[in-house]
Structure formats: C-alpha cells, structure tokens
Design brief:
The structure holds 2 protein chains of 2 kinds.
Chain A: E1 6-17, E2 20-32, E3 37-41, H1 48-55, E4 63-72, E5 75-76, H2 82-88, E6 93-96, H3 100-103, H4 110-121, H5 126-139, H6 156-167, E7 174-178, H7 186-202, E8 206-211, H8 214-220, E9 223-228, E10 231-237, H9 238-243, H10 248-256, H11 264-267, E11 296-305, E12 308-318, E13 323-328, H12 334-341, E14 349-354, E15 357-358, E16 376-379, H13 393-405, H14 409-422, H15 439-451, E17 457-461, H16 469-486, E18 489-494, H17 497-503, E19 506-511, E20 514-520, H18 521-526, H19 531-539
Parallel strand pairs in A: 3-8, 3-9, 6-7, 7-8, 13-18, 13-19, 16-17, 17-18
Antiparallel strand pairs in A: 1-2, 1-4, 4-5, 9-10, 11-12, 11-14, 14-15, 19-20
Helix pairs in contact in A: 4-5, 4-6, 5-6, 6-7, 7-19, 13-14, 13-15, 14-15, 15-16
Chain B: H1 2-14, H2 16-38, H3 70-106, H4 108-123, H5 126-137, H6 141-167, H7 171-178, H8 183-219, H9 231-239, H10 248-275
Helix pairs in contact in B: 1-2, 2-3, 2-10, 3-4, 3-6, 3-8, 3-10, 4-6, 5-6, 6-8, 8-9, 8-10, 9-10
The chains are: A alpha/beta, B mainly alpha.
Chain lengths: 553, 281
C-alpha cells in the first residue's frame, strides 16, 4: 500500500470545563506508515493520551476536535459518524489500554471476552469463535487451560496479554497502546512488550505506543515523537532523537531519565537553575563509612499474612548516614519491610535494633508515644494519597512537629517554614490544600513533613514511583542533597534499579520475601551474581542500543 | 475561605433547586428562632367567638376550633419541630459517627458485634419502635428526641463505618501514625473530619425525615400534647374538620410539613456538591 496508514494534520482538541475552554492538543501533525512503529512520549498532561483517543474517536463528551484532520488510509475520519467508526474500530484501528485489570470485565471468563471481541468483527458460529479465541490465546502465550479463568485469577501481565489478544482479534492494521505496561513489574513489562513487538512484526501491523518511559519508546519503536503541553516539540528516528536531542525539552527529558551510568547530578543538569530545588551549596559531611556501630539492624525478620509469608527471615544493617536500597518486584515484601522498620506494623519474628535499642519489642500500636518515633520517619509512594485532603500544606508539615516535638506558636511556624524551604517549597504554597498542588509539590510536602522532626533514619517507600521523570529528577536531587547536608540514613525501597543505584551505596535484592542478593551497589550492577538480579537488570528498558524493531523499519 | 465562597456561589448559581432549598431551609430556621417576636397573635390564646374563621387578611391561615390564629401556631410549631429534629439528628450523628468510625477503623470483633446490634435494630419497623420507646419512656419532648435519635442511629453507624473503612488504609493515615498520632487520635482528628462532608448530606436528608417522625408521633397522640402548637397535632386536630368544610385547619400545617421535608431533602443533594473538595477545580 502506498501512502501513510494514518495521517494526522494540525490536530486541535479542546475540552470545555468550568474554567472555560482548555486546549489539550494544540496543532500536532504526524503520520504512521504501514508496518511502522511510532512512540508518542510526554509527561502527564502533555496531551499524548488525548491524541490517541481522538484518533479512535473515544474522546470524552466534553472534548471536541476543534481543528485539523485525521485520515486513515486516505479517508477522512475526523468527523466520522458512529457507524463508520464502529466498522473501523477493532478491525482497522485497535487499542490496548492502561491498567489491564480494570479494562476487563471481572465476571466474564477471559476466553469468553476474547470470543466477544472475535464476534464483534466476524459473524462466526460459536465453535469457530472459540477456535479463533484459542488461537489468539496461543498467540499471546497464555496456556489454553486458562480459557475459563476470570481476570481476578490472573496476574497483571496476563491480563494485559488478554487485552492484546482482544485488540488483535479483528486483525487491525494499526494498534494503539496507551501506557500498556505502566504499573507492571519490569520483568513483566519486558515480557509484554516483547510479545507486542513480535506480534506487530508477524502480523505486519503499525503501532503507536504512548508512554512516559523514554527507554521503552527507544527500545520498541523506530520513530519517537515528543509532546509537551499539547504540542509536538520534536519528532525523529529513535536512535537520532536520543543520541542528539534537538529541542530543549527533549534534552531535559533525556537527561532526567535515569540510565545505567547517570548520577543524580546528571538528571537535573539540563534543567534551568530556577527549576531546581533551593538547596544550599553542598556541605562536606563525613559519611562515617564503616566507622561507627550500625544505626539500624534487622535480624531474621518474618511477617506472615493469613496464608502467605510476606517476609521470610530477612536480615540487614544500615550505618549512620548510609543509604540502603531495597529492590524487588511487587509481592517481594519490600514495602512490608519498610513498614515494620517504621513500626507501622508488627513483625511476626525477628529483632529490629535501632541505635542500640530493640524497637521490635515495642508494639506498633504504642510506638507513636516512643521518644524514638521522631527518629524514624517515612516518605510514601503516592504523594497525593499520603496528604490529608482536609489539611493545608502547612498543617501537613506542622502536625508531626506539634505531636512529636511539642512545638507551638512561632517556634512551630519557623520549623515548618525551614523544612519547606529546604525542600524547595515557596512559602506561598503553604496555605494551599493538596488538591491545589501539583504532584511534585505534593511529593516535596511529603518529604518536608518527614524531615521536619529531624529524623535520623528516613524510610523512602517508592518516593518517586508516581512522578514524571523530570519531577523525579528534582525530587531525587533534593533527597540526595538532604542526605549529604543532614547526615540522614536512608532505607530506599524501590522497583527502579537505576534510581536505587544512584541513591544507595548498598543494595539488597528481594524476591518473594527472601533476599536473593546483597552487596555494594557498584559491584552488584557490574557483576550480578544471582540469576534473578541479572533478569531484573536485563529487563530495564534503556535507550543506548539500537531499537529492537528499527531493523524492520 | 474566599475559594470556598466562590465555589458555593458557583454551586448555587448552577443549581437553582439547591438555591431554592437552601433559601427555604434558612428562612424556616430564622422564622423558628424569631417565632416569639414575629407571630402576629398568641399561638395558645383561645378566642372562641372567633373560631373556625377562613383565611383572611387578619388571619392569613384562618383560625381553628378554639379561635387561635393558625399562622401564629404554624410559626410557633416550626420552632418546636425543628428543635426536636435538630437535637435528635445531632444526637444520633454524634453517637453514630463516633461508634461507626471506630468500628470501621478497628474492624474485627468489635465491628462484627456492633454490626449485628445494628442489624437487630434495623429489623424492627422503625416507626413502631419509636412509638414503643416513647410509650415506655413517657410522653415528653426529650423522649421523642431520644426515640428519634435511636431509630436514626443505625444509619449513621453504618454510614460512618463504610466511609472510614475505605479511608483507613490511605497513605495519610499511615503518615499520621509516623507523625506520632495514636489510633484514637487518628480517628478523631483525621478520619472524622474527612467523613464530615458526606455525613452532612446524610444529616440534611435525615432532618426532613426526623421532622416527619416527630410530627407523626404527635399525630398519633404520643409525644407533644395539645395545646402546644406542633404540626403533627395540628394536622390531627384539623383532620376532624375536613368533612365539614374547614379545610384550612389541616391544609396549612400539612403544607408546612411538606415544605420543611422537601427543603431539607433537596438541600442534602446540594450540600454534597458544595462540600466535596474534589468538585473544586
């Protein structure tokens, strides 16, 4: 076929809201040739998902295509009616959504749902539908005996494969995948993406991959388009774009994405100084490596839930001013460990010794009254969820100071203002409520709250998992500076190995409640001993080598 | 504060029904409070020669069988009925929200035990239960309040329990524990304020129901006794005169009741929009 499969010209999409008309997409143009792969990358609010929804006409009722043209195989579908789109959707253009579990009907078996998708495109007898559904299951490498399983019985990765099977049921020419692996573990992500890439080649489909992950885009797509605030700022072949980014925003994004050899300072290097947190010049603080007794020791920690062992016999230790990374995929028990160390939950066995005293003997229920409460603080994963919606930013930070340090009046105000300033929060943000703040600002409030009581150990439970890369870069820099300035010890829990490598001297790798490998982070990254660590490292998408699919392009 | 006012203004403008209900409810409360001063006649002074007069410019809602001005009685009754409803709802809210919150937060055996007690309470026909309670406790205003509060209690317990239950694993609850709060303090200082907006809707809807309940008890001769002006008693007494054509004795108290219930119910829906912080963008 000659000419592009999909051609988008000067597309404008606007939403009518209470505050007036909001332009989500402001004049973007791109095209996808048959069999080609295009990644649209951008941070939250860049309009990348809206673009995908506009192409498939799945936009919200408050949205309107204000201007521009969408042509599919030369035919204008910008204002196609429902019947035309129905014929097009699934059979010609198909979509794979984010959060696979919620995109599936929980009370219908996956086989049935795939049969439904088959039946929507071809009027086939039941037996033929079933045969076709089984073929599709095989294509996405799900064993046939899972045909009657319900979505709740499958893992997230399996659910996403079911969705892919449904998406390709109508043999579409174009597949649009909107953040298909967000929320999945890296090894699962790799499996799903490899499968997707193989299917694209085998069935000669085109792919539009919408993602926030530059590494993923580089690895699986030939071309990459970068979006910022509704505009396409740069569009180029993946290798060229990452090797030599032209636009300032692209440079910032590329720099902010952690790689195998970047440092925290590298991440914010491409940012204007005004974007960086207001940290004081680095003080030279002795790390006291190996000099003193451990600050935190965990001996043979065990935590069991009703019928499963979340953490089985885990021991580690952490010195003053040191940073220990805990890495693992979901279900590895890493969050359980962070909560036991913080005394938010009780362990079922083992000892936790903090600064010489056995805090494991204090029940979690009573630890709030312990003088050691202020010494161990935690920063949570979801910055939005961890702030009380009815507290202003000031109260969020002030509350633990009032409780734990018994400060009031001007002393309290000074302490809160200091802590906010150290985290780069301007004072005029303090009277605001969480819903009036951005994700990055909320993350900083979470950190300011934790450091306001001057702890000695800060537990960081995936502190940047919910943030965009550029915000993540700023938050990581802030944390790194704080550690240098205050001599804080970190227990850094994360699924992102690159982040942990930059932030921590020592790492423990966990799987199913057990430590599979531990050691100094440099050595562990350079020469991983355990097979699981190697798998984890191999699964991280990165943009240095040539993209997998570039050859086919 | 400014933002709250702006948001309230927006809700009222874009939702005329809420504006009407809020205005009506507010007017009723003001009239009830000022009733001793604004009633044109003494609501309990009888004037037999002037009995059963139809509505006129002097007596806007006519007079009853003892010649008392019905309009003045309606205003005086508003004070009593609203006071009974507000105290009853306030009582069941205070007790129910605290019990429900602790059950929802703690879970476990306490939660199951309270849950079963609530189930038992709700298995009774609630109005009959209220009648039995008033009959047993004695015909006094405080007993109507207690009876109304008890039959409303299960709704508040269940409601608060469900609302707290979905929030107890929120990140900010864990953060509060790391910040030195005990479980008790978390329930009182963090969870209760957070469920207030949704509870306010329940309170408003419940007020209408409580007014109807108090009037219903008095209608049946339980609770408030004649000659005290009260909407339920006025309907009960006026009903005798429908067949002889004196319609105003029963119509006006009936209308007052209807208006009160309607206003508080409609207000509930509007309140939900005003108080929900997620609606403010």
């Amino acid at each position: 076929m000659s000419g592009p499969l999909l051609q988008v010209e000067d597309l404008h999409v606007s939403f009518s809201t209470r505050g007036g008309i909001v332009e989500a997409v402001r004049g973007i143009s791109f095209s996808v040739a048959p069999g080609k792969t295009l990644a649209i990358v951008g941070e939250s609010g860049s309009g990348k998902s809206v673009t995908a929804y506009a192409v498939t006409q799945l936009l919200d009722t408050s949205a309107r295509i204000a201007r521009g043209q969408i042509r599919f195989r030369g035919q204008d579908i910008t204002r196609a009616d429902a019947a035309q789109m129905q014929a097009l959707r699934g059979a010609a253009v198909s979509m794979v959504f984010q959060s696979p579990r919620s995109a599936l009907n929980p009370i219908r078996s996956i086989g049935r749902q795939i049969m439904d998708a088959v039946g929507a495109h071809h009027a086939l007898p039941k037996a033929a539908q079933r045969a076709r559904a089984l073929e599709l299951l095989q294509a996405v490498r799900i064993p046939e005996d899972r045909f009657d399983a319900y979505p709740g019985e499958l893992s997230g990765g399996m659910c996403q494969r079911v969705l892919i099977a449904m998406a390709i049921a109508g043999s579409p020419a174009l597949l649009i995948a909107d953040e298909p692996t967000t929320g999945l573990d890296v090894t699962t992500q790799k499996a799903v993406m490899d499968l997707l890439a193989r299917l694209i080649v085998e069935r000669n489909m085109s792919l539009i991959l919408i993602t926030h992950d530059l590494g993923l885009a580089a690895q699986y797509c030939a071309d990459v388009a970068v979006m910022q605030q509704g505009k396409m700022v740069e569009q180029a072949p993946a290798a060229a774009l990452f090797r030599n980014p032209q636009h300032e925003y692209t440079r910032k994004l590329v720099a902010a994405s952690p790689t195998f050899n970047s440092t925290v300072a590298d991440l914010v290097s491409a940012m204007p100084a005004t974007d960086r947190p207001g940290c004081r010049p680095e003080r030279s603080v002795e790390r006291r490596e190996g000099s003193t007794a451990p600050l935190l020791e965990a001996h043979n920690l065990i935590k069991r839930y009703a019928n499963a062992t979340a953490v089985g016999d885990v021991s580690f230790s952490l010195k003053r001013g040191e940073s220990l990374g805990v890495v693992g995929e979901s279900g590895s028990g890493k969050s359980t460990i962070s909560r036991m160390v913080c005394r938010l939950i009780d362990q079922d066995g083992g000892r936790i010794v903090f600064n010489g005293s056995d805090i494991g003997t204090i029940p979690a229920r009573d630890f709030h009254a312990s003088p050691l409460r202020r010494d161990i603080q935690i920063v949570f994963q979801d910055p939005h969820d961890s702030l009380n919606p009815r507290f202003s930013a000031f109260d969020c930070i002030a509350h633990p100071v009032r409780r734990l340090l018994k400060l009031t009046g001007t002393a309290l105000q000074r302490r809160v203002a200091e802590s906010a300033e150290r985290c780069g929060l301007s004072p005029d943000l303090l009277p605001r409520f969480p819903h009036q703040l951005s994700g990055g600002q909320k993350a900083r409030i979470g950190i300011a709250r934790a450091i306001a009581v001057e702890p000695r150990l800060l537990v960081l439970d995936e502190p940047t998992a919910a943030l965009d890369v550029s915000v993540q870069a700023i938050v990581l820099k802030l944390l790194d500076d704080l550690r240098r300035d205050e001599g804080l010890a970190f227990l850094f829990v994360s699924h992102d190995l690159n982040v942990v490598r930059m932030m921590c001297e020592h790492i423990i790798v966990m799987r199913q409640g057990q430590i599979v490998e531990s050691g100094a982070s440099k050595g562990l990254f350079a020469a991983p001993k355990a097979a699981y660590t190697r798998d984890l490292l191999a699964a991280i998408p990165h943009f240095e080598p040539e993209p997998v699919l570039a050859a086919e392009a | 504060m400014n933002a709250t006012l702006r948001h309230t203004g927006w809700v009222l403008r874009s939702n005329p029904v809420t504006t009407f209900a809020a205005g009506g409810a507010l007017a009723m409360v003001i009239v009830a409070i000022l009733s001793p001063w604004i009633a044109p006649f003494d609501p309990v002074a009888s004037n037999v020669p002037n009995a059963l007069q139809p509505p006129s410019l002097t007596h806007w809602a006519g007079t009853d069988q003892l010649g008392r001005d019905i309009f003045s009685r309606l205003i005086a009754a508003a004070k009593l009925d609203l006071a009974i409803a507000a105290s009853a709802v306030g009582l069941s809210f205070a007790v129910g929200a605290v019990i429900g919150s602790f059950c929802g937060y703690r879970g476990g055996r306490l939660d199951r035990a309270v849950g079963r007690i609530v189930d038992v309470l709700m298995a009774f026909p609630l109005f009959v239960l209220a009648m039995a309670l008033v009959a047993a406790l004695g015909n006094r205003v405080e007993n109507i309040i207690i009876a109304t509060a008890i039959i409303n209690l299960p709704f508040y317990i269940r409601f608060a329990r469900a609302e707290v239950n979905v929030r107890r694993n929120a990140g900010w609850v864990e953060a509060a524990r790391a910040g030195g709060d005990s479980h008790m303090s978390i329930v009182l200082h963090f969870l209760l304020p957070n469920i207030l907006p949704t509870m306010a809707v329940q309170i408003s809807l419940n007020l209408g129901w409580a007014i109807l309940n108090a009037a219903g008890l008095s209608f049946l001769g339980l609770g408030v006794q004649a000659p005290t002006p009260e909407w339920g008693i006025m309907v009960a007494e006026g009903a005798r005169f429908i067949s002889t054509g004196q319609w105003w004795l029963v119509t006006f108290p009936g209308l007052a009741l209807m208006l009160a219930v309607l206003c508080f119910n409609l207000l509930g829906d509007g309140l939900r929009d005003i108080l929900d912080p997620r609606m403010r963008t």
